[in-house]
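Appendix B, record 7
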Amino acid sequence: MAKTTDKPASFEAALAELEELVATMEGGQSSLEQSLAAYKRGAALLAYCQDALKDAQQQVEILEKGVLKPFEPGTGDA
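Structure tokens (predicted):
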């Protein structure tokens, strides 16, 4: 089963783990407890991916405006 609390190494790693969880859950061979743990991990991975995409979108918006300043992920400044 996938890790339950570890932060993914990257967006791509999180996405791959999420795809693996979905495939496992779709197989229907997990116990209820395993399914709930997988769902919780999937929700955490989804939130991580959404945050990473939001940060990337903000960085692109900064670059498009021609504003060259240091990018701080997760600050919401854009």
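Remarks on this record: The two ends are 38 Å apart (CA to CA). Helices lie at 11-27, 32-64.
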